[in-house]
Amino acid sequence: MAVKSVIEAVREGMFEEMCRDPDVFLLGEDVGPRGGVFLASQGFYEEFGRDRIIDTPLAEASIVGIALGAAYKGMRPIAEIQFSDFIWPAANQLIGEAGRVCYGTNGNLSVPLVVRVPYGGGIRGGLFHSQNVESYFFHTPGLKVVAPSTPFDAKGLLKSAIRDNNPVVFVEHKKTYRMVRGEVPDDDYVLPLGVADVKRAGSGVTVVSYGLMVHYCLEAAEALSGEGVDVEVVDLRTLKPLDVDTILDSVRKTGRVLIVHEDNITGGVGAEVAARIASGAFDYLDAPIGRLCGPDVPTMPFASSLEEAYMPSTESIASELRNLAAY
Amino acid sequence: MAVKSVIEAVREGMFEEMCRDPDVFLLGEDVGPRGGVFLASQGFYEEFGRDRIIDTPLAEASIVGIALGAAYKGMRPIAEIQFSDFIWPAANQLIGEAGRVCYGTNGNLSVPLVVRVPYGGGIRGGLFHSQNVESYFFHTPGLKVVAPSTPFDAKGLLKSAIRDNNPVVFVEHKKTYRMVRGEVPDDDYVLPLGVADVKRAGSGVTVVSYGLMVHYCLEAAEALSGEGVDVEVVDLRTLKPLDVDTILDSVRKTGRVLIVHEDNITGGVGAEVAARIASGAFDYLDAPIGRLCGPDVPTMPFASSLEEAYMPSTESIASELRNLAAY
Amino acid sequence: MARVSRAPSTETALPTKHKQLGLSDDEILGIYNKLVLIRAIEERIWALNRQGKVPIAASSQGHEAAQLGSLTAAQKDGSCFLFPYYRDVALKIAVGLEPEQVMRSFMGKVGDPYSGGRQFPFQGADLPHKIIQISNVVSAGVTQATGYALAGKLKHEETVVLCYFGEGGSSQGEVHEAMNFAGVHNLPIVYICENNRYAISVPQNRQMAVGNVADRAESYGFRGVVVDGMDFFASLQATSDAILHARSQGPILLEMKVERFMPHTTDDDDRRYRPSNEVETARQQDPVLTIADYLKVHGILTDEQLDSMRNEAQEKVDEATDSAEAAPPPDASTIHDHLFAS
Amino acid sequence: MARVSRAPSTETALPTKHKQLGLSDDEILGIYNKLVLIRAIEERIWALNRQGKVPIAASSQGHEAAQLGSLTAAQKDGSCFLFPYYRDVALKIAVGLEPEQVMRSFMGKVGDPYSGGRQFPFQGADLPHKIIQISNVVSAGVTQATGYALAGKLKHEETVVLCYFGEGGSSQGEVHEAMNFAGVHNLPIVYICENNRYAISVPQNRQMAVGNVADRAESYGFRGVVVDGMDFFASLQATSDAILHARSQGPILLEMKVERFMPHTTDDDDRRYRPSNEVETARQQDPVLTIADYLKVHGILTDEQLDSMRNEAQEKVDEATDSAEAAPPPDASTIHDHLFAS
Ligand SMILES: Cc1ncc(C[n+]2csc(CCOP(=O)(O)OP(=O)(O)O)c2C)c(N)n1
Ligand SMILES: Cc1ncc(C[n+]2csc(CCOP(=O)(O)OP(=O)(O)O)c2C)c(N)n1
Ligand SMILES: [Mg+2]
Ligand SMILES: [Mg+2]
Does the CB of C208 have a partner CB in chain D at under 8 Å? Predict the structure, then answer.
């Protein structure tokens, strides 16, 4: 196994699937000769040619709508939205249409579509290059939502997403792209959608998270282990379908839970996780359900000071975990 | 006081504000001579003329974007989205832009904008004329979201929304339009945004809801009173800002809570309400937090049987309340 | 400026228009027979709505010549795939649905071929007849149709996509994006705009500052054509030409000028916004009348035949209505089915 | 077809072009002085990015003649309101910002006039200079600018709105919707497309099948004009004409053909997609050079003056950089401020 970054894992995952299946193709802004603004498709244009690596006009509604239409015909499009913040023009196709195709045709049609969405902050992206958009799609029936945190997960989940016959919104945390590195098998492997991963086993407190925040949670857990608090870190990996069983199992074991995400707290994925725990593990809870999430302001501001103030950090997570353990 | 329907209350609220303030104007599809497809602006075109009652081309992104731009210049536009399901083309203006104007200009600009959105099912609207869209805006910082259930609330809240200097998404449940009637004062009055209303006081179980479902909850509460279960019905009225205090006060009193909404359960407003209770009233809870919501399928199907299967009903609410009371 | 496409002139002695367009007497009679049936179905549906048995219906009355003309062209071509819109009722029936299937769709019953009763009538997909229309969100299908055409091209197929929308729908930004993309990639697609000058109540001059939607094609580097959509033969001819053009040269925008005879849907009251005599005048061009006249003039249809056609149609509609009414709605237990494909 | 707008011909003996356009020698010299300062600022910002002190920057290099020409027209008019886009750096400086304000905006410091450091540089609103640009979501401002123009008209004001975007941005559906609406309502708005033939890496022929964005104006019932945006005088003239047209007759679309000298932003590497000599060739039309030549030919600028202009600009930039660097970022406690207006 070689050590790779998240962006490399994403690139490999797409590349291998494009080699494996001629129906897979990529479309989006600057995915061609430029190789994508994050270089996720670097070298693809040269390898697969301009029929399979399509530089689109700057028009997100059509990127998703055209991908959807191609999927009706049995293609397996991967649509890249350059930054999550630019997905809104495509909301009609993604929220309005994609999730209802199979259901609304009574199963006549299915939609093997992946929409790849670089998202998240901590990279001085300011109000319009940082957004966490996952909860909007999380709330949309008929869509699957995947949010990997490591190179291993990214590649395995992306390959599953591409092979899945349903529309999958695949959000990739931009800060993990180069920051997070890890071992990635050289041979073909897939990871099932809908299965969370216990990234660190523990018995004292559960922390549930996904994406970049998983790494901060792991650091916080490490920090707390010195203080005698044994933290279990559950990485959701797939937000929808949500692996409620793994969450509940962990909480039933620990009796204490902190939910961490970067997205705005109100109406975020964490609210649903909390609600599931509050109904499904009520009798096991020894402390109020904690949430440490982004505040309810429109994403991370640009100024370093404000961006920092926005982001949950290893320190703030550790401190919440400490409080919970002591409750 | 006269007895009015919800649609009449909405019409009166708009009409009075348009008379009071020349900067208020209405734009949308068919709001002119047609008076709106639900007749919310019946007679307005004749009264205010075509400069203030603007029939737009069929293009929702521009309806909201143009309203936004007019608001920058000190107008107070009311944009009507014909059915909630058609709001997605406007997501870029509403989710991406409107909620960030004040924050993203450091307070240089404000946006006195109301987007009126007829929503909800139970009217044989099928997959694309029934959607509950409130939770998407609920999750969007910088937007206010109002969801009245009665004529009195609708008029008082709408007038507040129009006078508010911020973008307000005002969702009006279509089924309440003609079904729900009630007393409405003849003189000018406003109801504050951000304040929930205890529609029925009780001590045994709390039920938290909004919109059409409030009425089913009230019926269920009535039904249960005969069985010795005393139900308190909290009508959120404003989803954002969320009146957490009123919710927590009620739950602290009753120790049991059921959250009811028509919107899909996963990631709905109820998830946040549950999460707030799970952290803010943990020690007062005598039973798991219950949620009775729409299932996770794309809105109400068209067939009567499936629509019924989708909708929470007086009976299903009563039965959940019974279970909770007995826990 | 968009070109104006005309049917072969009526002045020509012989061959008759339908023969010039490659239709035999039997074929044109068959098409007319369908039209009579369609009209009977539509009228019944409207009545059923008033009886509370059909929750909602849009009508194609006034658009039939355009729809059947373009469909006939597609069928003669044999390699077309259709993305119609909600008003394409005549088209969707004429592809080959049984009256009972139609009624089941309008009543939301088991056996609705489009969505199994999950959607408004005729929305979803009728794949056996090569039709997709996921939703009735106006123009949401236009980018999808364009993507379908792209996929056909990538797969080196012959497929030409016909994508339908109203002039109201042409205001949506997605239509611009779709056509622009089709222009860049020279896709085999015919955009068909059925322009009836109203988007519900909003007249054309409040929708756009131009006379023809077809003129916009130039903005995307392709051709726009205006055709009289009240004329079946003109519509057929123009669509046939357009299909050939699309296959060999790329996209084309066909604007069919039509009349909406009925209110927008059964929910609408058009007296609020429409001049009282407008529909009356328009009805003089009713294709049910004009095609009958044509057939009679050319000795292909007699009054008796027409009567028996109508009677037969009524019988079919009666039967279809009865059995659809008797059919069950989908079982409540199926509400979660097909949320995801396996 | 769009008209092609030309500056007064160079062949004319006298009066000189700037005089013909109503600019005194001092005025044109002042504008050039600003241009020199702007170039110095932009170059410094790029360098600061490489030093890690400015996270991101777009550059207007190559677009300055178009931007300053149109701005000069707006300023001479006196009743214009601007909705620029992220590349309008020269324009946003030239309206009257102090170099230090500019640097604070690029560094995300207190005193950023647009957003107080909440947004990317120069995004938000600079109301004292009649500028709004809420976001850098491409073309999201276009419908808003249109709404602003509508409001101005409803309030019976003289205001003409200038709304800027790139040719890439013209692919967005919202641009279609905005222009269509402006056409219907005859709004006082000038749409200005700065066409540099690239949307990041995507060349014009992958963005659209037509040569001129301006041609689309006809689809909306108004006029489109193409102008050489490398020519300050032509840009000024065309914008002046357009403003008058917009005020009296309604919308107009002005396409300014320009060159992008720099990579898309500091994050971009244009060698991945741009022919190596393209920029070099384009730089021969650099307005910093061509306007200097013009001024020298007409005896308005000497080499010494130019040198001291440059030196002064560098000094200003040095000072501005130092004080902006020393300035604090916004206090973390302000993160919740202004979420809502009171
Ligand atoms: C996005 C969207 N907005 C609004 C509606 C409501 N609506 C349905 S049809 C219609 C008018 C459509 O007019 P046109 O496109 O001209 O088609 P026509 O009905 O005249 O055939 C409107 C406003 C919708 N279904 N979808
Ligand atoms: C909606 C949206 N999609 C994508 C982007 C990313 N992006 C920023 S600028 C740009 C290219 C814009 O090109 P053009 O409009 O021609 O302007 P130019 O930069 O050439 O001046 C892209 C793709 C964005 N900011 N917003
Ligand atoms: Mg129409
Ligand atoms: Mg460009």
Answer: yes
Domain membership of residue A250 (yes or no) is yes
Which subunits count as partners of chain C given 3+ CB pairs below 8 Å?
Answer: A, B, D
Q: Choose the residue to mutate in C59, C122, C138 for probing ligand 1, maximizing ligand atoms within 8 Å of C-beta.
A: C138
Cβ–Cβ below 8 Å for C171 and D180: yes
Q: What is the pLDDT of residue D15?
A: 79
Pick from D207, D328, D339: CB nearest A297: D339
* 0.80 exceeded by pTM: yes
Summarize the confidence of residues C241-251 as an average pLDDT: 98
Q: A78 and A20, same structural domain?
A: yes
Q: Which ligand is nearest to the CA of D169?
A: 2
Catalytic residues of B: 129
Tell me, yes or no, whether A110 lies in a domain.
Answer: yes
The segments of chain B whose pLDDT lies below 70 read none
Predicted pLDDT of residue D9: 55
Q: What is the pLDDT of residues C88-128, one digit of tens each?
A: 999 999 999 999 999 999 999 999 999 999 999 999 999 99
Once rounded to an integer, what is the mean pLDDT over residues C158-162?
A: 98
Per-residue pLDDT tens over the stretch A165-214: 999 999 999 999 999 999 999 889 999 999 999 999 999 999 999 999 99
B216 and B137 co-located in one domain: no
Give the CATH number of the domain where residue B312 resides: 3.40.50.920
Query: What's the structural domain count of chain B?
Result: 2
Give the residue from chain D lying closest to A299, CA to CA.
Answer: D118
pLDDT single digits (tens) C26-64: 999 999 999 999 999 999 999 999 999 999 999 999 999
What's the CATH number where B31 sits?
3.40.50.970
Read off the pLDDT band of A1 (50, 70, 90).
confident
Burial of A198 (0-12, 13-18, 19+ CB in 10 A): middle
Residue C36, Cα to own-chain centre: how many angstroms? Answer: 15
Report the alpha-carbon distance of residue A175 to residue A262 in Å, rounded.
12
Distance from CA of A80 to the nearest CA of D (A): 15
Same domain membership, residue B279 and residue B244: yes
* Among B89, B104, B274, beta carbon nearest to A92: B89
- Residue D210: partners with Cβ closer than 8 Å, 6 or more residues away: C183, C218, C219, C220, C221, D216
pLDDT score at C15: 79
pLDDT at C200 over 70: yes
Tell me which of A128, A156, A184 is where a domain ends: A184
Domain-embedded: residue B192: no
Chains that touch A (3 or more CB pairs under 8 A): B, C, D
Alpha-carbon torsion C108, C113, C115, C120, what sign? negative
List the strands of the sheet with C223-228, edge to edge. Answer: C3-5, C223-228, C252-257, C189-195, C160-166, C80-83, C131-133, C124-126
> Of B137, B153, B184, which residue constitutes the final position of a domain?
B184
Q: In CATH, what number does D63-285 get?
A: 3.40.50.970
Query: Does the beta-carbon distance from D180 to B108 stay under 8 Å?
Result: no
Catalytic residue among A129, A173, A215, A261, which?
A129
Whether residues A21 and A73 share a domain: the answer is: yes
B261 lies in which domain range? 197-325
Tell me: do A255 and A283 sit in the same domain. yes
Enumerate residue ranges in chain D where pLDDT < 70.
1-14
- Entry field: residues in chain D: 342
Residue D121 near residue D56 (C-beta atoms within 8 A): yes
Are C207 and D215 an interchain contact pair (Cβ–Cβ within 8 Å)?
no
Which ipTM was obtained for this model?
0.98
Question: Which tokens sit at B250?
Answer: 């009620």
**Cα(A62) to centroid(ligand 4), Å:** 19
Residues A259 and A305 both lie in one domain: yes
Whether B59 is in the pocket of ligand 1, judged by its Cβ within 6 Å, is no
- In this structure, the answer to whether residues B233 and B262 fall within a common structural domain is yes
**Same-domain status, A22 and A98:** yes
Whole-number Å distance between alpha carbons of C97 and C113: 9
